[in-house]
Structures are given as structure tokens and as C-alpha cells.
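Tutorial, part two.
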Amino acid sequence: MQRAFDRARQLVEETRGDKRTRKAQGFPSTERTLPALGSPSSIPFTQNISSYLGKNNPFAGPVDPKTESVWLFDNTAYRPIHPYPHSPQPWQASFSAAFFKTETGRDVSKVVADIADKIGLKETGTEEDRERGEQTIAKRLQPFVDVIAPAKWVEVKLPNGKVQRLGPGGRSATSQQTITFATDYSNAQTIETDAMNAALTPIGPMSTTFAEPEGWLVISDIDDTVKVTLTPSPVGILRTTFLSDPEVIASMPALYNHIQSLLNPTWFYLSASPYNLYPFLRSFLHANYPKGTILLRDASWMDLSGFLLSLTMGTEAYKTGEMDKVHGWLPKRKVLCVGDSTQSDPEAYGNIYRRYNGWVKKIFIRKVAEVAEMNKDEKNSPERFEKAFKDVPKDVWQVFEDPNELYAAVDALKAT
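Running the prediction step on this input gives:
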């Protein structure tokens, strides 16, 4: 039922541009042929039904270390802002966790073969190359194959020694709750939090970075902004997600390091990908870019068609909503938004600029010209950008192809 709800929500949020682009680039036809990866029927009845009860679920239980695991997501702590003069408030942060069944023993060989066939793996390289490629696909599929575990909670130990319960998870087996820190911390300081039983967290502890109310903040898209994803192509998405080595957008790491050294901002990486990709994206970002909080959809799709839907349908509404949250946490920060032309970054950033007067100081949009499918669409047209940035001053937004074009504009932000 949750899967049906998530699909319905995205259908409501789908724009005419989404529908036109998806049809032109063959997403619906590709999605119809993709296999399911799991089934809600594999979730125990009590967990499945009681997950509707939310955080007060009396039937929820602790994570079973023999059969379950939990991911803890990095976050950013902030001080609540009052509309009148007030002494600094205690730090707060939104803590998120995702709960999974492990070692479900499902045979994914048919799914691996299906993906390999769609991306043309069998037509290239040696037999050894193909075997290695299928092993990579199987490994990256695992977070989609692991059945979610709703109605579960986990105890974590905060740096001050306090034991805190996270959860229970709801319908998507994720939990979110705001925690207030009794200890004071300094701006940009980072602390780690892990489960009381560290064996429950296969991707390791979570990091919390502290951000004072004032300063700079960067909101950056991921796919085709800092990482090659080939979002306009369903086959391109499958290849770059499940087979290819993650690849940076040329010259973007150097630009982001320059931004970091000049502005010392708090970083948020915003993607329409489902949370199943969190370990993959976190590893990539940590290896190439300044560390920050990764914001992903809280839907766990147990089929690959849902994964493609996440990246291509309703992204404007989703990203606008996530930036609303960031504004609620850090409304006094000066914001630099960076995105690209493949999805709805221009429209989402334009929405946020108009909604919160003076919050967004600069917007950079990468014009994606190297993907063939973009040449069949109007997404790179000047008219598209003018419409997206209606009522946004021309000196606030800039479209670029080469990141090296942006250094002067970044340097100018220092005086803003």
C-alpha cells in the first residue's frame, strides 16, 4: 500500500514537463519491463500492519542483530531562531534512520541478467569483464533487494553518554525525530553517533555537523551536477548506478574545494534518489567533495521502475519541500544553490528564491550538453531558464557549461 501511495503522490506532483520528457526519452516503456525486487508480503504481518501507528506504535520492537540492520544518516545541527532578541538556543538536529532485513537469501541472478541486458553488458568486453560487471551489479542491487523492516527501533549512544532511542520506523521503515543537545558545540564541529551495538550499523556511525545561524550554506544537486548519472536516459541511469565506476563532473571537485576554502559553508546535497542509494552516494561524495548532509527521498522502492520514477517524476515539488525544511533550520544563512538542467533544479531554485526573500544569494545551473537526449528536449533553451527564474534578478542566476567559468562569481560572494 505504501508503494501505491508513493506512486500516487508522485503522479500528483508530476509536471507537464516531467510527463513530456519521460515520454520522449522512453522512461514508461523501460519501466514496464523492469523486474520487481521484493514484496511487502515478505514483511511480518504484525510489523507491516502496526507500522501505520507511527512513533507511538506499541507493537514495535528493537532491531534483531541476527536478521536486521540499521542505517544512520548524517545530519546538520542548528539553533532554533526566535523572531525577537533571544539568547542562543540549544542545538537541535533531525535524526533519521532506516531499518532493513538482512541476508534474505533472494536469488537476484535474473534481475542482474535483466539489467546487464538492458545496458548492453553482454555486447562488450571479454567474458571475464562481463562476469566482473555482473558481480558489480549484484553488489549495488543489494540495498534494493534487502527487505525493509518497519516498526523497529534502535538505541544509540550520543557523545555525552546519553542513550537515545531512534524509531520506530514507519511504512517506509524510516524514522525521523528531532533531538536537542544538552552539550554546547562550536560552529563546523563534527561528532559521531553509533548504535549501542555497533554491529547493527553496517555503513558505520553517523556524523552530525554543527551550523550556527549565520554564515554561508550550499545546497547542491548530485545527479549530473557533481556526479555523472545521465539522468535524461533510463539506460544511462541504470548503467551509471549499477555498473560504472562513479564519475565526477569534470572540474566540479576543484570548484567545490574553492567554495569551501573561501566561504566555509555548511553543505547539503539534495537528490531525488531513494534512500537505498545512501551508502553509494555518501562514499562517492566523501571521496570527492566537501562533506555534508545528504537529503534523499524517504521511499524505499522494491522495484527498479520506482527507482527511475524517483529521479524523473515530481522532482520539483520534492526538492522545493526539502529546501523548505533547510530554511526552517537555517533561515539566516546566505545560500548558494548549484544544480543542472536535466531535472527541475531551475524551477525548484526559482521557487525558493521567490518564497524566501533574500535567503538565496546566488544560483548556478550547469547546462548539460553532453547527453544526446538533452538535444531532443527544450530543457537547455534560454526560454526555459527565463521562465524558471521569473522575478529573479539576472545577477543572481547563472547558467554555465564549464565550472571554470564560475570562479569570479564565487569570489564575489565573499563580499556579500
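The first strand starts at residue 61 and ends at 62. In part three we will examine how such features are distributed along the chain.
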